[in-house]
Amino acid sequence: MPFQITVHAQDRILEVVYPPQVTAEALAEYQGDVKKAIAGLAGDWSALVDQSQLRVMPSDVVSAMASLNAYAQLHGMKRSARVVSDAPSGLQAWRMTKRAMLTIPTRTFETRGEALAWLKNPDAD
After folding, report:
1. pLDDT tens digits along 34-60
2. In angstroms, rounded to a whole number, what is the distance separating the alpha carbons of residues 17 and 125?
3. Which of 31, 60, 80, 118 could lock 106 by a disulfide, CB 3.0 to 4.6 Å apart?
4. 91 Cβ partners below 8 Å, 6+ apart?
5. d(CA 95, CA 22)
6. Could you tell me the fold of the domain covering 4-124?
């Protein structure tokens, strides 16, 4: 199963659902596809990243995703919400965020609904 990318144009949210396992082929395809989606947003936007199906993120994937997140921040990403299924997955998401040296607001959630609500209401913190 590849990465699923959805652009919610009205809310300016780029949503990505990770597959249970990330292959080199899927990662390469995803990197190209998500950069095209970012370019299409052309301005400020938020990210919703659902990693709840992903069990283990290999270190090479962490590095690739950290680089991609740094790229995203430089190209308009203003907030990032991650959906994880358990504490170890949350730690993986935190490790990737730290490696990317993101300076934008970033939070981890247990449900998609909570993540979307946070992205749609930035003043509700």
Report:
1. 999 999 999 999 999 999 988 777 778
2. 24
3. 80
4. none
5. 17
6. Transcription Regulator spoIIAA (3.30.750)
